[in-house]
Design goal:
352 residues, mainly beta, Chondroitinase Ac, Chain A, domain 3, Immunoglobulin-like, 3 domains, five-stranded mixed β-barrel, five-stranded antiparallel sheet, 4 helices, 28 strands, disordered N terminus
């Protein structure tokens, strides 16, 4: 990928130089992100500050890494449109299609081979790399944490033409935690009804959905507890339940290192003891220059790990900091390190 570096020098000739510098950077990032939409170049902004230190901003690498992670894990299958069939993903997810399960967008029946695409996500590391956090929108519009039983992208095409379900098909997901089946698990879908691979997703409960318990047979012949959800549409689906926390909550802010903001980095929080949840700080306060979750929904007293991440020069730039949430919490991200995708995955998988 071609990378273009643009350099700006800022003079320290005013008591407001730092404020001007940050405003200038924000405007330059916005301008260059617009021009980058016309090419596939990764545009970095290199800012030389008055003390001759350099801050490098690169936003496109992070965005590209998200799409790449989704595309790289896209599994391909084929079923017969007339007879239907069952496909099994690499992590044990099953999709069961009945006979005559597909139709064209004009309502005509589909026969012959149908191409099925599947992404299955069961862990926090994949949620982070694919930017698919467990942020759920409540009926009043508040965004809170939900606990996932698996996130999935499912699609069907024939000869490159988009299809839709002619009838419900079953999604069967193995229950991957020691607690076993949870009857509160239900189906969540994107709140913007986006069914494309590159959606930015906030999950919203499908109140008409039905999730039941069952079993799924493993490759070795043993059986595992599973969730079974009849689905009537393609695109993104999340099996989730609302996370209940009875104690007091607070707003939380995260102050990230100089040179990073919402255009080139992201901040997540993992909850100790909840391996199936990963919340995204989905708002950037441009006045405070800090990330926040902006609904005051972080539980006081909860032990968490803050995860700061960017992508620069092909490496993940990250910081992982443990903390206990206090009233009016502000987390300051200190020293960052770099690692590979595999290294970041191992670090996140090791969190409590």
């Amino acid at each position: 990928m071609k990378t273009t570096t643009t350099t700006f020098a800022l003079q320290n000739n005013s008591t407001n130089a730092n404020i001007i510098k940050k405003l200038f950077i924000t405007g330059a990032l916005a301008l260059l992100s617009l021009t980058s939409c016309e090419t596939n170049d990764d545009v970095d902004i290199e800012v030389i500050t008055p003390d001759d230190s350099e801050i490098v901003f690169g936003g496109l690498e992070l965005q590209n890494s998200i799409i790449d992670s989704r595309e790289n894990d896209l599994q391909q299958f084929t079923v017969d449109g007339t007879t239907g069939g069952i496909i099994v993903g690499a992590q044990g997810t099953q999709l069961s299609f009945q006979p005559s399960a597909f139709e064209n967008l004009d309502g005509t029946a589909v026969t012959g081979n149908v191409d099925i695409e599947l992404i299955e996500i069961y862990g926090r590391a994949d949620m982070l790399k694919k930017k698919l956090p467990t942020n759920g929108k409540q009926p009043n519009g508040d965004v809170v944490t939900i606990i996932s039983g698996g996130e999935f992208f499912i699609n069907a095409t024939q000869n490159g033409n988009q299809l839709r379900p002619a009838q419900a098909f079953d999604l069967t997901a193995p229950v991957g935690n020691s607690a076993g089946f949870n009857p509160e698990m239900t189906v969540f879908r994107p709140d913007n009804d986006c069914d494309e691979l590159d959606c930015d997703v906030v999950w919203e409960e499908d109140e008409e959905a039905d999730v039941r318990g069952g079993e799924i047979q493993n490759a070795d012949g043993t059986w595992t507890s599973a969730y079974i959800a009849p689905l009537t549409g393609f695109g993104w689906t999340n099996l989730d339940r609302w996370w209940s926390y009875a104690g007091p909550k607070t707003m939380v802010y995260v102050d990230v290192p100089e040179g990073f903001n919402e255009t080139n980095s992201a901040v997540y929080v993992s909850y100790d003891g909840e391996p199936d949840a990963l919340a995204l700080f989905d708002t950037y306060d441009t006045t405070l220059e800090q990330f926040t979750e902006h609904y005051g929904q972080m539980p006081i007293g909860q032990q968490v790990h803050f995860i700061f991440v960017s992508v620069q020069d092909g490496d993940y730039v990250y910081a992982i900091q443990g903390a206990t949430i206090v009233d009016g919490h502000t987390e300051i991200i200190g020293t960052t390190q770099t690692t590979s995708e595999a290294g970041l995955t191992a670090l996140i998988d090791a969190l409590p």
